[in-house]
Amino acid sequence: MPYRIALASDAMDHETLFREVVEAAGGLTELANKLSDSGTITPQRVSNWRSTGVPPAMCKRVEAVTGISVRRLRPDDWADYWPEAATTTATA
């Protein structure tokens, strides 16, 4: 499966959602600290997500820390990475 970078569909939503993620966690450094088990997630790395989007491997952790769903974090391809959520939605 190709790695697709997406945080939101258009540039304005992209920036707005990034700010929302950071604010929900209590700031950029706080988000990095909450996501990192051993200091491997730095504020600089998180800041890069502003332009690259939240990597699929981090979305579930970001969702747990911020309450912002993977569907909002990766609106264009979330079902590719979490098909079980798509199944749950279809049967709900």
Structure in words:
The structure is a single chain. The protein has 92 residues and is mainly alpha-helical. It has a single domain (11-91), classed as lambda repressor-like DNA-binding domains (434 Repressor (Amino-terminal Domain), Orthogonal Bundle), CATH 1.10.260. 66% of the residues lie in helices and 0% in strands. The protein has helices at 11-25, 28-35, 43-52, 56-66, 70-73, 78-81, 83-91. Helix 1 (11-25) crosses helix 2 and helix 2 crosses helix 3 (43-52). The longest helix has 15 residues, at 11-25. The radius of gyration is 13 Å and the shape is globular. Mean pLDDT is 82; it is low at 1-10.
SSE layout:
Elements: H1 11-25, H2 28-35, H3 43-52, H4 56-66, H5 70-73, H6 78-81, H7 83-91
